[in-house]
Design a protein that fits this description.
The chain is mainly alpha-helical. Helix content is 58%, strand content 0%. It contains 7 helices and no strands.
């Protein structure tokens, strides 16, 4: 039986730091060795673009892009990983794959979609809707904090021109909502012993 991390455990944050390190490392390698890794992003509705479902969240358009995703990941991932009863790795995998497939299906053609922001939006949406669908005071409190701190992210879900993949944000968030709905029976407070 999986156990929750102990309250105040640093493990979820340390895992998030490792993920941030991997993202920075990949971007550094892509900068130092002109490998053109961004070509492995999601190319909507092109068969070759399906590989991007796996690789796109690991790839970024420079250090400004990767850093803009690392900040929210360092804040949100520990909240997701903090309760193993919710199967956070399954949730993260669902958001990653479904968000990528949704971007492949619905994203703007003629572009390569890259970056972890779809995963960021998915985690944020999961945490908010886990608080709505679940029966946990902790999940509800986390949802309130996420809305207060990251409520402005809603703007990124709206159609816009330019290089921002709002489609990736939207399907990432939708994947998070679906994951929270599917996981609602696991989002419970521990019973109080009287």
């Amino acid at each position: 039986m999986a156990r929750a991390f102990a309250i105040g455990s640093a493990a979820p944050f340390l895992v998030s730091l490792r993920v941030a390190g991997v993202l920075l490392g990949i971007e550094l390698i892509d900068l130092l060795l002109p490998l053109g890794l961004d070509r492995f992003g999601i190319r909507p509705r092109e068969w070759i673009g399906l590989e991007g479902v796996i690789f796109a969240p690991l790839l970024h358009q420079g250090f400004g892009h990767v850093v803009s995703n690392i900040g929210p990941l360092l804040a949100l991932m520990p909240l997701l990983l903090g309760d193993r009863r919710q199967r956070p790795w399954m949730v993260l995998g669902f958001i990653w794959i479904m968000g990528g497939l949704g971007t492949w299906l619905l994203g703007r053609g003629g572009a390569i979609h890259i970056g972890a922001s779809g995963v960021v939006y998915g985690i944020a949406a999961y945490l908010v809707f886990a608080g709505i669908f679940g029966s946990s005071w902790k999940a509800t409190l986390i949802a309130i904090v996420v809305v207060l701190v990251y409520g402005g992210m809603v703007h990124g879900l709206l159609p816009q021109t330019g290089p921002v993949s709002w489609e990736g944000h939207l399907v990432g968030a939708a994947s998070g909502v679906i994951a929270a709905w599917r996981n609602r029976s696991r989002i419970k407070s521990k019973p109080l012993i009287s």
